[in-house]
Structure formats: C-alpha cells, structure tokens
Amino acid sequence: MENSFKDFLSNITLTSDQQEDAQTKYTGVCEKLYKFYYGEGAYDSSKKYLFGSYKTKTNVRPFTEEQDIDVLFKIPEDTFKKYDGYKSNGQCALLQEIKDVLKEKYTTTDKIKAWGKVVLVQFAENHHNVELLPALEKEDGTFLIPNSENGGSWDYFDPRMEIDKFNESNKATSGLTRDLAKMLKAWAHNTPSMSYKSCERMDDIIAFLDANYASGANNIGYDKIVFDFFDYMRSRCNDCIKSYIDKAFNRAQKALEYNDNDKPMEASEEWIKIFGEEFPKTKENSKRENQGVYIQQNPSRPWFGSTKKNRIG
Q1: Residue 53: which of 148, 128, 126, 145 has the closest Cα?
Q2: How far apart are CA 48 and CA 30, in angstroms?
Q3: Model confidence over 147-187: pLDDT tens digits?
Q4: Which of 7, 186, 225, 311 is least enclosed by beta carbons within 10 angstroms?
Q5: Pairing, β 293-296 against β 153-157
C-alpha cells in the first residue's frame, strides 16, 4: 500500500505549469499594487510575503473554488497613516482602493471582491485565485492588517511565526509534516461539508507528529500514520468535526484490516472514500505465491496403487 500512497502524493502535487501559473498570478497582482503605491521604479518583490499553503508547499490539486494563494502586500507607512486617520472605517476604504486599482489591470476578471481583511481576485476555472492581504510591516517583523468588520480596526498578524513552526516540524520529521498536510488537505477537499480550517488542521498535524512521530516515519507506512492521526484526533477534535473524524477513522481501520488480510483492492477502495479519486485504486488482489508443489507417489508407475498426492511446501 505504500506505493499507492506515494502515487497519491504525486497525483495531488501541483504540476510545474500550475506552479508557474501561481507565481504569474500573485506577481501580477503585486506588481500592479507596487506601481500604484511606490511609483514607476522596478518592482521590488520584497514588498510581498507569501504565507499559507503556497509558502509551505502544502497546496494540492485538483483546484477548488476556495483554494487561493495567500499573499501579503506591504503598504507604505504614509498609506497606513492616511487610512488610520479616517473617522470611520478607514480599513474598508483601503480595501476598496486596492480593489479599484486591481480592476484597472484585470478588466476582464468578473470577480474582484473586498471584504473583511482581504481583496480576492478570482480568475478563470482551474487557475489560481489570489487573496491579497494589505499590511503595515512593523520593526519586529510582525504586521498590522485591516479589519473592516465592526466599524474597522487594525489587527496584529504574525505569519512568520506559523511558517517557522511548520518548517521546524517538517525538518524534524524529514518531510512527513508536509506529506501529511497534503494528504489531509485532499481529505478535507473530499469532505466539502466539513468545516475544518487549514490553520487549525496544521496545528493539529504538528501537535500529533510531535507526540507520535517527532523524528519522522521511521519505516512506518503512510496508511498507519494517517490512521494514527484520526485516532489521535477522535478525543481531541471539536464537536463540529467529530462525526467526520470518526468516519475517516473507521474507514482507515477497515483499510488496514483489508491490507493485513491480503486484500489491497478493498483497502484502496476505503482510502478512496477518504481521499477521493486521486488515490489510486488497486485493480485486483494478487494471488498468493507458493501454493505448493504436488508430486504423485510412484511417478514411474502411475497406474499402480493409489492416486493420492503428497503436498510439498
């Protein structure tokens, strides 16, 4: 089953064309904003900061409508002061300004939305969307971001802390953190009615691995590790996802039992129920080897005596 899991990971990993599309999309958005806020000089890519799954490289395919590139754009301090000085909800005004600026570039893009803390640029189906978060970078490397809800405010944001936590775990586990995150993202995509935020899921993955696989898989199969995660979460998850965790646990348990009984085809069917069609289906169960070699008694005189056969092996 381990080869099936490796193929599964390959199936959900972005292609080189998709990776290039992602870079093209977020670079185009940030270049337009850089020109507006910083002038006509050469684009300075340090004014943007990727975070989320495109920073940790835990993004997966196929794409969903909710799958966005999270990118932070660093606004000038003068811009921050301008909107901070508004008597009422300067944060909303900042988001609307960014929306209007991007509409100048993306004239054929139907959906550019500003709400909450972000501006979302939605592109054609099967292409990356960009979720743009404007922010003022502070001296300590953290950020102030606009929140247009409840009259407007500036919220503290520290994406680097989350990225550092992921990188530390991924290094300690020799890449298991990233692999498990990608597989469980595929599970979440295959369970659209479940509300399990990616940031919460990542925190749970890191805590689980720290408690059970702090140094990596160590020759333990992905199937057992995924099963262990669901088992770990059964007593720790919020009530709103408990039924989904239990269902995935039961299916993973059944898959392990099938595999232990030399039924990889049935095992793969259970994993497909969890992860979706990107998990490869085993077409048939291989026949057992060493069924035994039979010889007849008195082979030189087959007509003599009993036809009873002796089994060797």
Answers
A1: 128
A2: 7
A3: 999 999 999 999 999 999 999 999 999 999 999 999 999 99
A4: 311
A5: unpaired
